[in-house]
Specification:
This protein is an alpha/beta fold. It has one domain: TIM Barrel (Alpha-Beta Barrel), CATH 3.20.20.70. Helices cover about 25% and strands about 25% of the residues. Strands 3-1-2-4-5-6-7-8-9 form a nine-stranded mixed β-sheet. Helix 1 crosses helix 2. It is globular and about 50 Å long. The chain binds iron/sulfur cluster (SF4).
């Protein structure tokens, strides 16, 4: 059984999949408490569903792209791995959104991982599991959510130290409401950083606090 916060159909708001219709499976629980968290309702709320029950719900939307998100989906590691495997077996294109604080080593190779490394202003810097960078694949994406200049400088240093751009795609986005997008874009251009800037599209389409989108 997995504790599931919500299953809904929307457009993908982030990553290189932004703009595509997608079914989201939001799993309950998170081992982090980021200062800017916008899904605190997923920390505890949810109902228990079996893997077949979740897949049958996903199928109702007739959409091939599915994202497993949270909370932190890997907090329910074994069942979450099984859910992703079965979705892949049934030919779904599966995305996993994870905080980067739990090991991604066992995730099915067919899953596209969108992984955070938590910047200093998140308050969760110590939770980053840098070993995870080794397991990222060319189609995976590594995301930095940047709230101020300190975060930006830190993320730039990580790019130099670990060179994850050689392994996967790199995304830079702002903490919504904390840093102006134009400021981050200017820094990226000034430094000629080879990263993809992104906005959380769903926060512009709907009210930023709307759930289930
Ligand atoms: S990892 Fe995500 S869900 Fe967990 S506290 Fe941070 S922002 Fe919220």
């Amino acid at each position: 059984m997995l504790k599931v916060n919500e299953i809904f159909y929307s457009v993908q708001g982030e990553s290189t999949y932004a703009g595509l219709p997608c079914v989201f499976v939001r799993l309950t629980y998170c081992n982090l408490r980021c200062t800017y968290c916008d899904t605190e309702y997923a920390f505890y709320e949810g109902k228990n569903l079996s893997v077949p029950e979740i897949i049958s719900e996903v199928k109702k939307y007739n959409c091939n792209l599915v994202e497993i998100t949270g909370g932190e989906p890997l907090f329910q590691m074994n069942e979450c791995l099984e859910l992703m495997k079965q979705l892949c077996d049934q030919s779904f294109e599966v995305l996993l959104e994870t905080s980067g604080s739990l090991l991604i080593k066992e995730v099915d190779q067919r899953v596209k991982i969108i992984m955070d490394l938590k910047c200093p202003s998140s308050g969760m810097l110590k939770k980053n599991l840098y070993e995870n960078i080794n397991y990222l694949k060319p189609d995976d994406e590594l995301k930095f959510v940047i709230g101020n200049r300190e975060d930006y400088d830190w993320a730039s240093e990580i790019l130099k130290e670990y060179n994850p751009g050689n392994k996967c795609k790199i995304l830079f986005s702002v903490v919504f409401g904390k840093l102006e997008p134009i400021q981050l874009v200017n820094w990226i251009l000034e430094d000629k950083l080879n990263v993809r800037f992104q906005l959380q599209m769903h926060k512009f389409i709907w009210h930023p606090e709307t759930r289930g989108v």
